[in-house]
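Pair request: fold both.
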Amino acid sequence: MGDEEPQADEQREWVMKNLSKENADIYASLPEGVARQLTMERDPHGNVQVSLIETEKLLSEMVSKKLAQWKKEGKYAGKFAAQHHFFGYEGRCAAPSNYDADYCYALGTSAAQLVANGKTGYMAIVKNTTAPAEEWVAGGVPITMMMNMERRHGEMKPVIKKALVKLDGAPFKTFAAHRDEWAKDTCFVYPGPIQYFGPTEVCDQCTATLKLEQGK
């Protein structure tokens, strides 16, 4: 254990030296375990193991740290003790919308049609999803068309390319154009609980990100 801790500290220092000042400050503010998970602990495909990061402990530890600082400054005199519960995906997701239900139903139907027609090795897809559901186009894509050759453990392996945030895409450009304003002003739109019955423009909309991606 004694040898591992200095090595982890050296890795953390190396990561911070290679980040921009803003990112290094954020990284330094994270609990050590979470910081390590973000930068060092990966699955066999090289991905961050998001489902293993205990975000509830991250939040409570950071709140505890901030309150301890405020107590020293005389801004806080209470007590803080957190009780953690972990619900995995259930804790990170919202209830499905009509769009979510239509999309998953369409994918299932598409997959069934591929199986019925002997099209193995295909992934079910649905296109034209910013249009009403009755205008969607179902289909399949060969898994091999999604593969990218990458070097893993010294050998070239076919893997599905990571889906990274496209910094030149419309969704991120929209965010970049508004982030200074959103950082200091209350600009979010809260439409209330998900509605399942009512006007289509209220109940059956796809996500804003998808609309931006498709130029709608």
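--- second member of the pair ---
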Amino acid sequence: MRNKAGDVDHEYKELRRFLNDDIVGQTYALDMLYTPKEFWITSSPIWESVIKKRSRFLSKSMSAFLGYIRQQTGKYAMKGTRMAAVISTVEFLQNIHPSTILGGILF
């Protein structure tokens, strides 16, 4: 069955796996541990205990998080390069007469 607009997906994880994912720097786990309380939908005494001790689950070995950062950096750097090329092309085209044959200028 396919999701429809407005459908909400739920995903459940064992607490041990969640904490391990946090220790290795999985972004979803870090996001959940540091999401402000006003954005929580529900809580439990166990979750409150985890939140109180959340700094214990941070690690200097954050390879998953660093991998995510590298991936995003590459993705947005490429988009920035492409955007710069588009802007440069638009500026170039705005500065030439509409009847100019581009082949005569470029080649």
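Observation on the second member. Residues 88 and 94 are 10 Å apart (CA to CA).
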